[in-house]
Each structure stands twice: as C-alpha cells, then as structure tokens.
Design goal:
The protein contains 13 helices and 25 strands. By secondary structure, the chain is α+β, with helices and mostly antiparallel strands. The chain has a five-stranded mixed sheet. A hairpin with a 2-residue loop joins β22 and β23. α3 packs antiparallel against α6. The chain starts with 16 loop residues before the first strand and ends with a helix.
Amino acid sequence: MLRYFAGVRPDGTNATIIGSVPGEFRADRNNIPRVWMDHGFWPMLTVALYLNETGDLDFLLEEQSYFSDSLPWRGEWPRRKAETPMRRGTVLEHILTELTTAFFDVGEHGFMRLRGADWNDALDMARERGESVAFTAAYAYGFDLLARFAGALNKDVQIARPLAELFGSGVCTPAEMNASLLRYCETVCWDNGKVTLPTSALVKVLRSMADQIRRHINETEWVDDGADLHWFNSYYDNSGRQVEGLRGETVRMMLTGQVFAILSGAADRGKLREIVRAVDWYLDGPARGGYCLNTDFGEIKLDMGRMFGFAYGSKENGAVFSHMAVMYAYALYSRGLAKEGWRVLEKLYRQSTDFSRSHTLPGIPEYFDERGQGMYPYLTGAASWMLLTLQTQVFGVRGRMGDLVLEPKLTAELFDSAGAAEIQCTAAGRRVNVRYLNPDALDWGEYEIAAVTCGGEQWTVGGPAAVLLRKELPGSNSLSLTVMLSRKGAYDRV
C-alpha cells in the first residue's frame, strides 16, 4: 500500500499503470492524459480495511513521494514539468489530496466531473460537461472514513500548505470551486511548504465536505417515474442534462447512483426504502439472475458513453453486472437491510450455479446477458466484493480499529438444521473460526447476541453486536469462537 501511494500526483489524480519494478509507474496506456474520476475514492477504502484489521494508525503518518510526469494537471490544465519540485508527504496527506481535489473538481451542477469515466469506464463520452452524482456520493463516504481515522489519531499533523489553503477556502459555487482548484494546481507547482494542523480541525473540515455533498444530492437529485416510485439521479450527460427519471414515455434508471447514495448515507431511512422499491420494480431481471445495471434507454446516447452502443442486456448496458450488484448488496447490509441484501446475493448465486441457464462453471462472471448466460467466467472485483460482503456484512466478522467485531446479519435460511452457521476467515489479525448458534430458528431482526465464548473466556453481550478488544483476546493466532444468539430482550429478562 505504501508503494502504491507513490503513484499519486500532487493534483490528486493517479498513474494507472504499474511498472516492472517496485515504485515505477506510468500515466496510462500510450501516455494518453485520461482521468478516471473515481480513482481517488478506492485507496481510502483499501486503507480503511487495513486500519480496521490492524489498528495501525501510524501507517497514516508514513511518508511517500508523489508521482510526477509531463501530463497536464488533472488531465486538463497545462504546466511545465521543470516547475514541479520533488514532493513527499504522509499517506494521510496523499489520501486527503485525492479526496479534496476531487471535491473541488465539479461541473456546472456542483457534482464531481465525470472526465474520462468513473467505475463504469464505458461512460467515456461526457468529458466536457458530464458529472458523476453517484461517485460524488461515494466520495462523501470516503470523507467520513478519513474523518474517523484522523480523529482516532488525535494529534497534530503536517499538510501541504497549498492543500490546506484549498480545503480552507470556504467556497461553494461551482465557478468558485473550479477557480480554487486551478489556483491550487498552479501553487503546488512551486510551493513545497507544510502547515501543522490538529486532527480535530481536519475532522471538522472532512465532515463538513461530506455533509455538503449529501445535502446537495438530496436537494437536487431525487427523481421519479412520473408515478409513485423515486430514486436518485446518477449522472449528468455531456449536454448538461440529468440522465435519469422520466424522459417522454421512457423511465431511465441506473443502479450505480443508488448504491453509493445508500452507502454514503445520502439516502435517509425513508428514501432508502423508496430506492429499494424502485430498484425491485425497474432493475430486477428474474430471467437474468439479478439486478440490471440500468433500464433500456432506447437510444445510442453519444453524449454519455460507448456503453449505449452495446445491445441492451450486454456488458455495461443493462446486463446483470456482478460487480455493482454485489456492491448494492453490501450497501444494503451496511444500512441494516439484511433480507434485501441477501436477495441480491442469492439471485447471483442461484444463476451462477444453474448450468442450464448460466452456461458457465460455478463462480461469479463479469455479467449475465439478456439470456441469463454468464459472460467472462471470473471477475476479480465482483469476487472480492462478494467475499468481503459475506464475511464483514452477512456473517458480520470484521475488524474495527484493530479490535474484533461480531455483528451477524444472517437470515433464518442461512442456518443449518442444527441452527448453526459457521465461517473461517481472518479478522483483527487472527485466523478465526466463528460459529453462530441460533437454536430457536430466529430470523434477522429477531435475534441478538447473548454471549461469546472463546478459549474458556466468555463475554456477555445482550445486543446486536459484540466488540472484543484486541488486548483481551487470547494470545493464539488461531481462535475458535462460539456465539449464542437469543431473542431480542430475552437476555435482559434473565
């Protein structure tokens, strides 16, 4: 991870090709100056997984160099390479640079510019006026994560002076934000200075930016089908228009915006339920084995991307795209909708294991086409998110600042005939075997954790989650835990 951060430019964009030796990066294939606007989001998620597993907050204070090349700032503004000094900064500063520059790099509607594309790299024809509402919401989640870890550091940190001036500028209109970003990109060419900030001040700024994003999405992007179903718009096209909602007699909806509105908390509990209703109505493809990436727009939308040149139901245009479908399940689980989340995962599982329909060996393909056939037998992103969701959300086994959290969201059908559900995995730096016992066959929402037993030690809980402090866990590298589930409130009555 530390080597990876050497591929971050001072402007917050990333080199996208790893070289043949450690620490070597190239800007992109054929040195084309292309920016994927979501690249600043994923490193925060990866670091968050590591920090929660280990509690190693000092990693944020390790130093790394920045990547420098002759390409324009953020793929657009020209500069001369000779003007750029050799820069170094902490991992915290690198992440903050990625998130903050994206926050200020907005289009006319105040959402982050789509530029070359985001996660869906087939949305590649809206470079000038396209905006990704979906990943603007995702960045709000990133700001929340960084605020949590920065707050846990609880010390003064050094930040590049131009960066501190950028996030302290207090601007809010798109024109002002663009001007501040341009000024930052010019200043960072020659100003190698640092300022010292308490993490408490940094946390305040990070939370403010996350809240500003959520508020703006709620005020402007809640769309409908002209009847009683509502959801969030995900994008603006290169003509500066909202992509989703009712267009003539065609309802346009995309899954991506719903995933990150849910994950980031932009969707409150009421809107969360409305989104689920809309997704079930418009994006559930029973014959295809899951939730489609979008409805049929009925046009080759040249002001959005090449995805609309694919036949509907193929690849990124309306297929059941496993990667985003699994992330939708993860988002639902993260907000406590376990039954809805399991429905997403079960559809993918049933389709994948039914050879007569999927025509692929068991596994998770890149997508299921309009016939329900699995295409491209294995997609690493979807597989990774599937395992992540099963372990950390369904079974609820994960780290938190180095401690071990057990928060099962298992529905009744996932327990065997003996009322048990078991997982072996790594969490909080240990190899763990967790066995949940549900003798009363209770469903999700009906049970809580009564007690946890490990190595002769027992912790009484009486709540939905158990947090076992790392220092209190037995010293062995391999732990076996038994978790007794009981009806909510039953433990208190005893």
